[in-house]
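I would like you to sit down with the record closing this message with an eye to the fold:
=====
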Amino acid sequence: MNFFRPLFISLRLWFTLTGFVLAFVLAYAVPLLFPLVQVAFVVFLFLIGLDGWLLFRTEAGLFARREVPDRLSNGDQNPLTVYLENRYAFRVDTEVIDEIPFQFQRRDVLFRAQLQARETRAIRYELRPTRRGEYSFGAVNVFVLSPLGLLKRRYQFEQGKLVAVYPSFLQMRQYELLAATNRLNEVGVKRIRRLGHSTEFEQVRPYTTGDDVRTVNWKATARRSDPRGASLQINAYQDERSQPVYCLIDKGRVMRSPFEGLTLLDYAINASLVLSNIALLKQDRAGLLTFSDHIGQLLPADRRAGQLLKIMEVLYRQKTRFQETDYESVYATVRTNIRQRSLLLLFTNFETVSGMQRQLPYLRRLAKDHLLLVIFFENTELRALLDQPTPDTEAIYLKTIGEKFAYEKKQIVKELGQYGIQTILTAPENLTANTVNKYLELKARNMI
């Protein structure tokens, strides 16, 4: 049984057997062909035996290894590699079937490769997970055919591997790298000119060409004057640091809507991770609060080493709930635990003005003590509907309803702005860039 378990029959063998059946039928009608068909069939049986001997005479004729990261990035294309090594003394054809996790719902992970004797080959492909959690990989199945191509021998490697899918750390690294090289404009982040200067004093230093003459410190200049001439001294300022930045993530039912495979909650989580990293790079303190019908987890703002890892671990465990969000509990938690004025980025979704107005009293109270930025989403499916032509009365009716909903989104932005509440209305795919843009704009305007 151990011999027959890895043994499989190729299509070439089935087709050849079908041909011999037809040949024997023809030989029944033409007896002169019968001896020739018999000899050919005996030769064919010998070739089958030879093929089996070639494939099974070497105990480990082929080696394969799957290289998969310990963590996958949610919503991104993650590279995977299958390495093949032919240890036979002849050329082989291979069929590689990788048993990927069921969450991907794919049945097309099949690769074919031809390897010469002692050749090594790398097969690369990508997977895009759309849910956080643990993913279980199965075996790497490699079917080997000799040059005769009649039989197949199956090899199995990498029996089971558990991989965790985390929030989009690949996107976070991309933004971090572009920020370090001043190329954030490549992902849609605008260059924002800082207005004025911050009020955090750094030092008194000598004046150099290009400094703002309004920062001249005349008293220090008088004290340091010498007979050869006065040396101007200026006050040097630095960017204000250690400003608390909190991402408030709504996990209620309004965040379960899927767009391109990801829920709104996953878009918010990915954007929160990127923004927290950018805030830490800007020397601000990053924190986190998750909530739905009750408060989830509160991570106080900090910028010490390991804070980003704590944020990632908290975001990894978040799940949407079907209940309506309790904003009263959010306000009470913020008032109790966040005493210093902070930038609060509230990731939520409002579909109607009436839905927003029910929560408006709590939003106004939050905006009274903190700088509140409400981030909610455009309905991209609705936008696609509005761009379509209207060939009949039903299409006109649907488009009219869609325009009403789109107008309500704009009304929400307008009404929140009347109370001094900052807003971002964005498509899910543009969430990260728009959020980082707004954060940099608020810092440039010295609002935080």
The chain has a mean pLDDT of 87. The first strand starts at residue 7 and ends at 9.
